Predict the structure.
Amino acid sequence: MSEEVLGERDLIRRISEILGGVENDDCVVIDAGERYLVVTTDMLHRKTDFPDIMSPWQMGWMSVAVNLSDIAAMGAEPAGVLIAAGLPPEADLYFIDELFSGFGDCASYYGTRILGGDTDSHQELTITGTALGFVEKDRVMRRKGAREGDLLCTTGSLGGAGAGLLAWQEGRLDSPFIEKLLEPEPRLAEGRALAGSGVVTAMMDNSDGLSLSLSDLAGVSQVGFVVEEDALPIAPGLSEAVGKKAAQELVMSAGGDFELVFTVRREGVEEARRACKLTVIGEVVDEGIWIEKGGERKPMAAKGYEHKIGR
């Protein structure tokens, strides 16, 4: 038996070769006549994805939110969510009621609903969500399309979910960042507005951390990025809580923020600003991924959250 350990992205590349090529986007895109149907799926497990302080309701909310974030990254409007839930032996009626209420509440909050799915018994709580959405063909957002000279932007602030994870691991359960970790907020309104602006050239969500997301965008678009260190929108209070250096590391490599990272034609940045609140954090260059401060550039390592397969 092989003892090779594969990262999630290496495994995806391997599977893509086996299947004859799979588009590297947040969702698969299907021609549905006048519009595109976009579809995504995400599997979550009790041990690896849900901190032990999460309530069943929060587990349900997160399971739907992570899928809707992929819909947002495509500039699409959600059409519904399917849920397949493998329930463990210890799941009582209270747990089940709260879990499924979380599914429904998240879907409803973002203007969609749970369409159906499947339930089964499982040794470990395992939830697979499948989200569907529609987007106009001239507005669909893809990871491929960034061009040298474009501006690199992000919605919201970064590092908050990573700070929540760190606080949980250290037992600081009164941290204000815990909620950011446990109840992610997919940027559906922002995704739709940016898609409608007509000036965004590439986009994805930031669920696995900024540096890993930029590595994904760079690979698909065959470009590089320069990030201005002082321009990063660090979550309010994070630098004061953990120090500036640690805060920047959380911004770069901690996952869970579920913001949108995107590139904009330089001449269209004001149009993008009218679409939603954003921060310009750098620009697209010909190659490499760099962090710059005071005119000095250093290479940025592609670090972030990845499942590991093998042993």
Q: What stands out?
A: The CA atoms of residues 229 and 293 lie 6 Å apart. The longest helix spans residues 56-73.
